[in-house]
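Title: Request for sanity check on Tetratricopeptide repeat domain 6 prediction

Description:
We are preparing a figure and want to confirm that the structure record we downloaded matches what your pipeline produces today. Could someone re-run it with the sequence below and paste the raw structure tokens into this thread? We only need the token string, no images.
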Amino acid sequence: FHYCRRGALKIKLGQIKTAKADLNTAICIEPLLLDARWHRHLIYLLQDNDSEALEDLNFITKHKKNHADAYQSKAEIYRRRGDITMALLSYSQAIKYNPQEDETYFRRAQLYESRNDMILAMEDYSQASQINPCRTDALIKHGFFCFENSYWSGAIQNFTILIPQDPQNAEIRMYRGRALIKIGCYQEAIEDFSAAVHLDPNNWLAFYHRGCLLRKVYPHKAMQDLSISVLINDSFNNLNAFLHRGILYTELNQLEEAVCDFRSVLNLDSNAAVAYLNIGLISLRKQNYYEAIRQFGNALRVDPTYIRAYMCRARTYHTVHNLQKALKDLTCAIHLQPTVQQLYILRGQYLYEMKKLDLASFCIQHAAEMNQALGSSPIQQAAVHSFLQNHNKAIQCLVSAVRVKPVPSLFILLGKTQMKAKKSKEAVESFKKAIEILDPLDSLQSLSPEAGEVFYLMGICYMDQKKKIGALGAFNNAVKICPNYADAYYQRGLCRMRLQQAKCIQDFNRALTINPKLFQAYLSRAAFYGIKEKYTKAILNCNEAIKIQPWSLRAYLYRGALKYYKKAYACAAEDFTSVTTIDKNCTLAYYNRAVCYHQLKESKKALKDYGVVLLLGSRKEIDLKVLINRGLLYLELNDYYNALQDFVAATLKFPDDSKIYHALGICHHRLKQLKKAVKAFNHALKLDPILLDAYIGRGNVYMDYGHETGIKQAQRDFIRALHLNPLCLKARINLGYNFQVLGKFQRAWNQFTIALDIDPKCQIAYEGRAVVSLQMGATFPAFHDITAALKLNVSAQLLTNRGVIQQLMGGMHNAMKDYQAAISLNQNFALAYFNAANLYFYDKRFKQANKYYSKAIHLDPNNESAVMNRGITCALLRNGHGALKDFEQAINLNPYSAHAYFNRGNFYSGLKQYHLAEKDYSQGR
């Protein structure tokens, strides 16, 4: 150990060779001295000997799997070697054992970014910034990713967080300004650009964007900004500044300056068609027509599909009376964009001037037909208006038509159009008028199938109005008139389903008999079976629906949900994966798959999917559920810091939910932030004064204060919870433990007994009462209670506790049986090995004791008692080297342990090293 420490000091002094020699000596003496290997690997890194360094790191991680720094160092070596996969694995292991290290997340994010796994990279950057809010480089990466992927709100949020941390960063303000433009916040954008140019007067982009924003409102200020921008940067990157300044000069009638700017654009990019076009327009204003034609020709040479250039050149040709070329250009423009009415009118005008009257008439007539919706018939006009989503105009046309000719077909068409316009009440009236004409005697006999469709449409309207009884009557009439109307049976089934009538399944069956390809009927029948908890039948119907529409998101989503309810979580996750294959932006699929992974204990996959949902953005309710679920998952993983972050985010979205504040209190409690935990529980109780869990949680926090005042406050909270619900087991048991801490064992015993009266199968109550009985000296009742607890649930902890009780009762053989049973049940339970070793030691079976102490230390390296006892055992077995090593390790674990110094002093005394023995006796006093 001393060689190791000397080697470490020499490294700091730059004495690399002697340091390496000391470390090699330390490793030769003690091959398992991991600190020596760690320092030696640092020397190898200085010598660029990555292979040897990696060998030392592998040895460290083999013998100490939670050595986060070793994994991080391995990751750096793999990264230098270009082995990205191994580097990622090592960073992940480092994060697993030290999740609070922001640098590890950041470096892993860089690797993901190099592999183009941007979502994972952004998750890690986000995590790094959450752990260390001052980590501006991670926030910048995340913000730029959001900006580049047009996620404007996310970009704005990141840049807003960055600005207070780095208020002098002009680039961040500039990018936030650009994002604000995208969401229409122009005033705020101007403020950001102004701040950017104030902080960095050489920021040409900020001047450019502010100039573009101010063009219409403050043209002279915009001109000044654009001029400064091109003054700072007159390269190709700032081509748009020249272009916008040229357009602004044109609007201010400064034509020569405008031409200069457009020519500057062309000098930078000879393929900028818009610059040629603007020079041509300026030439046109100067009445220099042939120069204008030449410039428009240049624009078309660069971009042969530039419609505006064709139109401008056509008008210029018309001005110089070259009608043939003007007509040719207009024809090209129409070919490129045949839906523009104005082009046909211009072409007709030019043909008229060319005395081609028939062609001119055809063009004008075509333009008129476009304007009058392909004819003068009201029905045709209504059809076109309806197609163009102008439903109100379509209704007006049809109302005029039915006044002239009140026939059923027009009323039906009017009703359908009103349905498209979401005017279901008016649609019902139109359908009723159609029925009155079709069936004036109201007999429903000898009606045509057309009447069946009318009743069907009436039923749909009633369903929109939530008038289920009226809808049911309309669907009944539809199927009476048309017995083979599959859609009517299906809609009647839906109506009956909402009325909670079991006959709905008969309608779905009949609809599918008539039309076996009716996709919706299969899904509705699956929904019915799902409500009845007949999940197998529901899944079979989803299978049939998927056969009809293999790319249906709803079918896969519903089948996945049904499999989840059937507890087939892996199969459900496969269905949700199919949805993400079809639509990569379906947040519902990612959310549900995350829930499945959560149930399957595949935590990494669940966390990844929860993160994807939050990155994609969804409804407020979904985001809230994601934050709560992910927070609960972090709690299960004992990652209380990240759980805390999620619950804090959840409170921002839904500040009135007391249960979220309760969870927040638990996180603060687990992180030893006791005052914050009490504050969170207080807030939860303010929102819900009868929330029992909040009282119990706050009581547990007060218990952890460790002083009598806190314990009394905890007692009051547990009593309040019992006052609200005397049958609350958690409050009763916590009150029992509270009395136990106060030394009121009889009262504690009473509370545990009441808890067992409430629930005779409460294992915790049996265990608590056993401990209290033991403290009161009643070993047999304690043994009885711990045995009762074991009958309810066998665990290594309970077996070990019973072994301790048996040992106190003098039943050493039975105690050993319990310890061995605990070890058989859980071979990683260190306490069972330790107690069994103590029993072997008591029986003077030192070899077995030594073996079990070693196992206990392997499972719990910080158990100083096990280390010290093994040292005593080694001394008794004449293993002096092992004994000395263990005593030193015990002292390292607890430098204030008098027993460790005393035992080592005895050891030195036995070796007649009285000076060292006296030193240890003095230290231990």
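Thanks, this matches our download. Residues 620-636 form the longest helix (17 residues).
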